[in-house]
Amino acid sequence: MSGHSTDSSLRESAQQRGRCGFMMLRLGFAWSTSSATTKHIAQARLSTGSLLRKNSPRTLYNNWCSGLPKALQFGQKSVLASTRLFWDSSRSSGVIFFSMASGSNGPDRSKTPKHTNRLSKEKSSYLLQHAHNPVDWYPWGQEAFDKAKSEDKPIFLSVGYSTCHWCHVMERESFEDEEIGKILSKNFVCIKVDREERPDVDKVYMTFVQATSGGGGWPMSVWLTPDLRPFIGGTYFPPRDSGRRPGLKTVLLRIIEQWQSNRETLESSGERVLEALRKGTEISASPGETLPSSPDVANRCYQQLAHSYEEEYGGFREAPKFPSPVNLMFLMSFWAVNRASSEGAEALRMVLHTLRMMALGGIHDHVAQGFHRYSTDSSWHVPHFEKMLYDQGQLAVAYITAYQVSGECLLADVARDVLLYVSRDLSDKSGGFYSAEDADSFPTVESTEKREGAFCVWTAGEIRELLPDIVKGATGAITQANIFMHHYGVKEQGNVDPAQDPHGELQGQNVLIVRYSVELTAAHFGISVDRLSELLSDARAKLAEVRRARPPPHLDTKMLASWNGLMLSGFARVGAMLGDKALLERAERAACFLREHLWDEEGQRILHSCYRGDNMEVEQAASPIAGFLDDYAFVVCGLLDLFEATQRVHWLQWAEELQLRQDQLFWDSQGSGYFCSDPSDPTLLLALKQDQDGAEPSANSVSAMNLLRLSHLTGRQDWIQRSQQLLTAFSDKLIKVPVALPDMVRSVMAQHYTLKQIVICGQPDAEDTASLISCVNSLFLPHK
């Protein structure tokens, strides 16, 4: 499972892609969820700009519910308690936790599909997963819109992504159900959206769901009028009623009844919220407003992060724990300008401790490298096993930056480790990077039911069988298995706390976690540290070989410009810091891929996505999706990092061209800042500007720094002014809740301290020139 959420001042949730729907419907439907059926607890947050400063989620939700027909309220007063919502008001961010529903196991994969719908013609892995549902699915597009208008039917919009556990659950339980499929197909125009393919659509309707429910997540379920206006929304629905909890069938039948008998009330209640959202989500600079004070904003951001910091294992908040690279990068920048203060020293301590604990924990794949999405517990032990490309790119940068600061070899090793995983498992032969690996897989080739983590976990018996050799020189008759199990916390009965495994999927299994330092383990068995390192390395290689023979998890081979931009930065920054030509060559291959496959030369625009076809060649959709703000901002940042790593001017030139195009497409000439998507698109009801750095940084945060860097590299003073205008537009949140935008705070700091230009004169290929460049790359200079 994986989760995303909301909070009344932050929006790490729906943007954070911590991923996947938790049982959190609100809508006025009341039910209770037993904690015994909770798979994991997902962190949730919400922000809809000034709207949520004027109206709390509870107030807006109650106002919306009061306008709904009574038949759709289902015990409105008890909804907060019955979804087991826990509001932590003691922290500035306001965290909401939701219990989630239980899932079911998958179908027999040997069955021949009984149904095939039009999604079978799509490229998206997520849409293709639904191509054989008994539901008359449409992709998002004019054909579906025209059908809804001509038949005057409401639209059922279902949004998810291919590696989302709860999306899989809802498909198995509801969308493969013949009866529910008939109800949906007969009474609604059913549209399925891959949120990674259409983040613009996802953001608009997630904003509605968050504002009317106090939370959000995937799968997202929203009902729209034929002109695309939402009137009811939620996340995961069980198929049928359970106690006081209504199932999807009941919800559908009541919506049908109300659409026929009380349509005007449905439409008006949704329109009121939509109008409030239009006003509440507006972000703009007021006349005469100036940049907020950098020291004040940075200090407040530091204090808010320190308040939520968890001392024992690092990270922010107890559980679930997300890596949050944006927080770590801010803290290192804060340290760089406050080195002599106790606050600066504490900021660095928080970063290094967090990164060490993550590297030792189960969130880090010790056998096949890379990082899982998040930890379900406070000690980074039991993860949600999904792996996302955007995490790998940002964590590679965070680890190599921490190595620059500390010189600690472990941190550089982890950065290399991440890039090894991406090069091996998420790389296309074209040079592009795939999006994600799923959490669920079949335990054996004979299995018909997928389990979360099956690809990654081990029994003690498996370890003993794989590592039976007696270790010469060790104290007593010790096998390699004894040493490995001791070091990685492997237990005979399994090392997963039942509280982290309510469905018993990990019963008797072990998630590897480093329990001792190599010095302690070596001393325990009476061997040298070097000998221990050899034994552990050999053991991990043997386990990796066995894992390769297991049924692999689903690989989402969609290639996104935005996430490829983040990964480009990872390879460029690590390659430059370590002086590794192979990593820099891989970075250049990625940049060439972006130019060849995701740049429309004729239309002078970035394309959002492309796909690996059946013949292993890169393919494009019949109607390519134009790039969004994230695509431009993240690619420009990657190109600037690549230029600084290679000194090849053509990458800087392309970055400059892309920035100019981004300004033309997304800049708000009235209120400043960039819109997330094309503001002229008539199918998008809200023109949004992302105001939180979550699992991915806000594209506005990245753009503020891009503009500043480009202005110094190209001499364009207007880009310094544009960067300042952008930051001014977000000044309200930067002043009040800077922890929501730590990456943007770094840009405020860069404006204050000004960038220092370093010029190296010499022959490009000369040894002394390379030495000077290497010297610069070895230092952490956030404002260079």
TrEMBL record:
Give all residue intervals belonging to the Spermatogenesis-associated protein 20-like TRX domain: 116-277
Q: One of this protein's Pfam families, by short name? A: Thioredox_DsbH
Give a GO biological-process term.
carbohydrate metabolic process
- Gene3D superfamilies assigned to the protein according to its UniProt record, in alphabetical order: 1.50.10.10, Glutaredoxin (3.40.30.10)
Protein name per UniProt: Spermatogenesis associated 20
Q: Which organism encodes this protein?
A: Cyprinus carpio carpio
